[in-house]
Design a protein that fits this description.
Helix content: 25-40%
Strand content: 25-35%
Number of domains: 2
Strand order of the largest sheet: 11-10-12-15-13-14
CATH topology of the largest domain: Aminopeptidase
CATH superfamily of the largest domain: Zn-dependent exopeptidases
Shape: elongated
CATH class of the largest domain: Alpha Beta
CATH architecture of the largest domain: 3-Layer(aba) Sandwich
Radius of gyration: 29 Å
Distance between the termini: 97 Å
Number of strands: 15
Order of helices and strands: HEEEEEEEEEHEHEHEEHHHEEHH
Amino acid sequence: MQPNPCRSCPADARRRGPALLLGILAVLVLWAAQAGAQELLQARGYKMAGDAARMRVVIQFDRDPDFRWFLMRDPHRLVVDMPEAGFAFAEDELAPRGMVTAVNYGNLERGRSRIILSFDGPFEVERLDVLANQDDDGFRLVADIAASSQAVFEKAMAEQVETTASTRTTPKSDRLGKAAAHDRRFRIVVDAGHGGIDTGAEGVSGMLEKTITLAFALELKKKLDGIGLYDVFLTRDRDQFLRLDERVRIARRHEADLFISIHADAIRLKTVRGATVYTVSDKASDAEAAAKAIRENLADEIAGIEIEEEHQEVADILADLIRRETQSFSIRFARSLVGELSGVIRMIPTNPHRFAGFRVLRAPDVPSVLLELGYLSNPQDEAHLRDPEWRAQAAEGIAAAIGVFATARQGAGG
């Protein structure tokens, strides 16, 4: 039997042996963990911007993430799966904003991480791609998301099931511009301008714009429903405040073929009277149109809502083409509307079709107009706006213009 060499060692040295071994092992484990952490994908920044109609989400990575994404319902969610990652997100950037009600992230199991974006309603993923950064060696995941209808959301979910429940990127040809479905009735969203805390203009006798726009919207819907050819929706049917982007989202949620926003302004020149039709444009047709757009775009600020300006590049050429096509349809309807209304009510004598940068008309795929019924600052216009018979005549002219436009759109298959 060999003698135990440690018997000749001091007792305290023999006691330190196991402890020393454990210490060495702990250092090795810590070193391995740090080395492993350095090899993890690093999600090092999160940003999102937008409103209730459209959002852009940008997530920064140290290298190209091999990701997969899919949709979930109840609530509506976008799920992005990726290799195990280390996260360094600023918590204030994750606060609910626009359509996004919550952002959750973390590790699912060894080797896998997940980011979940929850939304307040159905949405459509227009684009979800990874791009190389130009200023550093990292990569960014960019998601462009737009409010949509439940039908579109359900269709996207059905398609993902057919493709193993996930996809890597969105084909460019599918990102924007879903063709209008004309195997159904023509859909119209009528928007009663202002509402709730946002009273709008005030007439010479105290009539509030929010009151007259709601009364007219209800009458117009009744008129259109009576024709029996259209599905008609209201953005509001009571004295309710709605954000401008929420009005846009309602139009998209209903997959509207036409959006008409009803208004009745007031200006200092009390002699000015007559109806005006506006369409959206980055450049205003004239100073009066520019001033009108500024007044209407302040609606959210009047209600105490901070407006975040977005400066996004056009996603691709296809997106720009669709916006141009939508704007073309909007102009076509505006001209028809001016022609029909000119025969039944008084139009503003100079340039009855004008254009400017109205936020409420910015749905990229819904032809939209803003109809100024008249000026509450003019006693004659205000009297007409209060007159049910006059409103019925105006509704008749609008219905006629819609008939021409709807027939042309459906006949052309979109």
